[in-house]
Write a structure and sequence with these properties.
The complex is a heterodimer of chains A (about 140) and B (about 375). Chain A is α+β, with helices and mostly antiparallel strands. Chain A contains 4 helices and 3 strands. Chain B has 2 domains: about 70 residues, no CATH class; about 190 residues, no CATH class. In chain B, about 35% of the residues lie in helices and about 15% in strands. In chain B, a hairpin with an 8-residue loop joins strand 5 and strand 6. The chains are: A alpha+beta (about 140), B alpha+beta (about 375).
Amino acid sequence: MQLLAGADTADLKAGYEQLNEKISYTYLVKPETGILMVQGRADGTLAPFCLGEMTVTRCILTVLDSIQGYAMVQGSDQEHARLAALFDALLQMPAFHEKVMATLMLALKTKEQQKNQNLAREISDTTVEFFTLKRGE
Amino acid sequence: MYVAVKGGERAVKNSQILVAGKRRGDINVPKITPDQIKNQLGLGVDRVMAEGSLYDEHAAAMAIRQAQGDMTEAIFLVRAFRTTLKRFGNSIPVETTRMAAFRRVSGIFKDIPGGQILGPTYDYTHRLIESCPEDDTQDTRERPLETENGMSDPAPASHDAPPFPGELPRVIDILQTRGLMQKDPAIPPNDDGEDLTRQPLTFPASRSLRLQALARGDEGFLLGSAYSLQRGFGLDRHPFLGELKIGYAAVWYTPPELGFKINIGRIKLTECFMVNRQDDAPKKAAGFETGYGLVFGQNERKAMAMSLLDRSLRTNENTGKADYPARDPEFVLSHCDNVESSGFVQHLKLPHYVDFQSELVFIRSRRKDHVPDEGDR
């Protein structure tokens, strides 16, 4: 679910095209945009405090009247929420699980790892190396 | 006796049309896009998100464009926007030790777990306005930084990237484990903090509400207040930067429909710990005390000011006396919200003709001599 929430809508769309099947579903909750209050902790460890809200879009749908797909994604992109919920449902179905894991989910995971690696490489270049100079004796 | 006067509808409508035109500017110049603002004016977007109290880069970018760059106006737009949205619930408190940090420095210890990571910052730039080519091709200095949504081509593996610092222990913990800092008694983690958007701010305010007010407070006001502390209006010794960390924190939420927590995404946060020496007191041995700051986006200045104020606003918790403005919770917290302060200051532009008329009457009645009547037609 984390990978679906963090994915680009374009990648999810492409993933859906790849399936080559029309999946029918019914909405329990149509994609709707709302907000979540993000909390932090005083001193990082103590009592929670409200830091500020963030825009999210959620969607709940059912496939085959029994499998529930849920998605809550950052931002106001309703397509993103719809597709993420759809894939959440598909991943719970044995008929689709393997295929989706091997194609879309693998691609998303690779992309995320790449992003993290790039970030790590960039910041490692800015990590300070201290040199101590011995003076006198 | 009041005489109701109406008018100006045509003028108001035309004023709206005029400002829309001014906002667009010269139509021969390309129109600015929210994507450009998000990417190239990201720190402005961060500020509008923090003070608008809504983490939504697109909304903030749109607001900045619509407000013609007036940040306080943009913050107002974002605040208004958030009132139109339904609140689904509260997130689980973010775990900042697990942030994917791209900048992390400490002023108190040289060697810290994970090292001093400078990251992208203007601290070491020379502050000279540079002329650079308007296209990207010739500028060899610029290396496009990885943005949150940036798609990267598989980078040529020239060398193995070092492992990403997944978890950076808090520098403050070093002081605590050495027994130099009193650990505040652990409060049972209740699910939700108090919320300023749901209840008015009354005094004495809990630390939860103070931190929320500071997190959404005006950067300039907080900065000036923190500066006053350092200059002697509240602090009599040099504070120290325990840790400043900027990175992406995961946001977790437990939807009632699912009953288990899910990861919604990552948000950029700046976290700051300030450390102050506390001398021997009747019931406490000398030790260190901290102040905490946490802000949306990359805003070091504000997080540092917030953490200084978090500490100073607690100084007189027991005595209730406010000796300096930046130590007075009522002074700082009542006036740090720029939407509120802007509203009240600017409301003076509204017609106060009748109010002022009564002022004139009063002045005249106090004067014995003939005073030429002016302005009462």
